[in-house]
Amino acid sequence: MTSLTARRLAPPDMAEMATEIALCGVAAVCDLSGALYLPDLDTLVVSDLHLEKGAAFARRGQLLPPYDTQATLRLLDAVVTRYQPKTVISLGDNFHDRIGSALMPLPFREMILAIARGRDLIWINGNHDPDGTTGLPGICADEIALAGLTFRHEPSLAHGKGEVAGHLHPSATVRRREKSVRRPCFATDGNRLVMPSFGVTTGGLDLRHKAFTGLFARTDLIAHLLGRDRIYSVRFGNLLG
């Protein structure tokens, strides 16, 4: 897998920006952007884009800077360009509310069309956008299974083996140079993986929060933290509470 990963991570010096793992025997690459690349499936996975979040808040009378959608799509375009996947899966909460995709301005719609050109795009439905997307390329589904992995929005306590999910926006805290540093992270024990949020205006939930109880074998749980210029892989027991 090393040579394939190096090829996908052009230029080669960007290899430090990714960490290779295995999920139920399936090779995976945790990218510093917060995306997951599955080389054997030629599939890129992102989660919790929360596109049009600023617009959703504006509709409720709360003003946020209106740049979130463009910034998130630019990041998505960059990581798609880097890996050139055949398939892109977005794990739900693709939009911040039910009508975000229908009302999304044309320039952002054209950015998504460009990202989807020549590849399959799969939108997993989330709790923020349970009705799927409107007028965008690709298909919508509540979940999808590929090569023994199941891609869904919310983690399932009942069906966790081989699960790749989002929803919880995991983050973790470590001590670095006498300071506590909290960063988004991939969380996995080798059987299940919960993705960090990809949207630029989304927050994070600490991996020690009760919402994660029962999802992982904590003795095997590793947080792959998204640092400024590299990924830091830290065992759960070494995280700060």
From TrEMBL:
SUPFAM superfamilies: Metallo-dependent phosphatases
Keywords: Endonuclease, Hydrolase, Ligase, Nuclease
Highest taxon of source: Bacteria
Domain Calcineurin-like phosphoesterase: 44-132
Signal peptide: none
GO molecular-function terms, A-Z: endonuclease activity; ligase activity
UniProt cross-references to Pfam families, sorted A to Z: Metallophos
PANTHER family: BLR1149 PROTEIN
Name under which the protein is recorded: Ligase-associated DNA damage response endonuclease PdeM
Organism: Rhizobium wuzhouense
Gene: pdeM
